[in-house]
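Re: beginner question about structure tokens

> Can someone show what the tokenized structure looks like for a real chain? I only ever see the sequence side.

Sure, here's an example I had lying around. Input first:
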Amino acid sequence: MRVEESVEIRRSPEDVWAFVVDHVNDPRWCKKVKSVERVGERGWSVTHKPVPLRPSMILALEQVQADRPKLLVLREEDRASVFEVTYRLEADGQGTRFTQSSEFEWKSLPKVLRTTFARGVRRDVQRQLRDLKHVLEAE
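And the corresponding structure tokens:
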């Protein structure tokens, strides 16, 4: 499945890049992320709570590709899913157009629930981008 959303941020691509490439910032704009710990040169261990009323999970986050300040590709995997997340940053007249594309598959979710959970992923991405815009434009 695939979800793609964009937001305009009134900050330079370099400013946006510096913020999103440092995953310690993730809890500031990704509400489901509780903590982030670096594991190796391109890896992080993320404690997140993807589903309300369920316990937190550990997510392995790996930086797959980085082209400063235009492109960042990440691989995220926990016991329930695998995501390939791409951030594209493009300069525009007002600052930066930030686009997040997420390709994902569920490991064990019944097929009947996949469309419902995909809608949840889209809402999460939309919320994250609104929060990213708010955090960066308030600084």
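Each token stands for a local structural state, so reading them left to right follows the chain. The two ends are 34 Å apart (CA to CA).
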